[in-house]
Amino acid sequence: MADKETSGTAGGQEGRGGSALEQSGRRGSTSIADTVVTKVAGIAAREVGGVQDLGGGAARAVGSVTQRVGIGDERSQGVSVEVGEREAAVDLTIVIEYGESIPQVAEAVRSNVIKRVEGITGLSVTEVNVAVNDLHFPGDEQPDHESRVE
Amino acid sequence: MVAEPLKRVLPSPRVRLARVALETALATKQVAAGTPGRHSQWATADAGEQLSGVLATVRPDGRYDVELCLVARWPVPPLHELGEEIRARVQRALAREGLGDSLGDLGVAFGDLLAPDEPAVE
Fold first, then answer.
1. Quick one: pLDDT at residue B105?
2. Looking at CB atoms within 10 Å, which of A85, A133, A146, B20 has the fewest?
3. Residue A17 to residue B39, Cβ atoms within 8 A
């Protein structure tokens, strides 16, 4: 990059769609919206083996409805980011596969989220808080009871 | 006799600048689309067509500042490097079109990210 100098703030870009980080370059600047940081964190979390889903129970239930009607996005579900000029903090709510080591999966998630967000956005990630909201069992997708009607 | 509406065969330099900048950005592999943003602020009207994801505004010196708002495609490289690459490509394309001197600042904003399992943007 021609110029690594950081300028502009999240606040300075709020009116333009919540852009987060801005860096000045040769005759122009590059900015990244909070949505992008959120999606990167969500994708990074899902890349880790042992993570079954993101979001709390209510978020997942609401999310499945909003996604069906086309107004929701599962990649942002369970992810909350706070983005400043140079730093970001990430809160994640995840569902882990039963049998996996929760500390190991959480650490792997933390490490991958930091790697991806820092690599892609240039932000420094100050913290990644992982809340394990539920465990997933292989039979969870199957209906509890057979339908009485065909 | 009713006069026919005037056909605009020559787009203004502002619109030409916006179109070349947007088309060049969209030709970049890691860019999925342009996006007008939540309040449609990154859009330029061109003879009945809307160019989504670009805004060109004139400056006091007669040049135009161009702002692009783009959707990046996963997997993405470092976005600031991608922004610089797009800026360089657009500057080259504008120079080829004889519009290089009309360009002021060129801003690149990444407004969204197209995830691997997300349907392609129309």
1. 95
2. A146
3. yes
pLDDT tens-digit map of A88-120: 999 999 999 998 999 999 999 999 999 999 999
CB-CB under 8 Å, A39 with B115: yes
- Full-prediction pTM beyond 0.80? no
Residue contact B77–A120, C-beta within 8 A: yes
Q: Which amino acid does the sequence have at B7?
A: K
Tell me the pLDDT tens digit for each residue of B87-96: 999 999 999 9
Query: Which residue in B74, B82, B107 is closest to A43 by CB distance?
Result: B74
- Residue entry with tokens 């209510």: A58
Structure tokens at B92: 């080259």
Q: pLDDT tens digit string along B67-110? A: 999 999 999 999 999 999 999 999 999 999 999 999 999 999 99
Give the pair of three-digit tokens for residue B47. Answer: 């003879």
Of B74, B111, B118, the CB nearest to A17: B111
User: Using beta carbons and an 8 Å cutoff, which residues of A are at the interface with B?
Assistant: 1-2, 13, 16-19, 23, 25-33, 35-36, 39-40, 42-43, 73, 75, 119-122
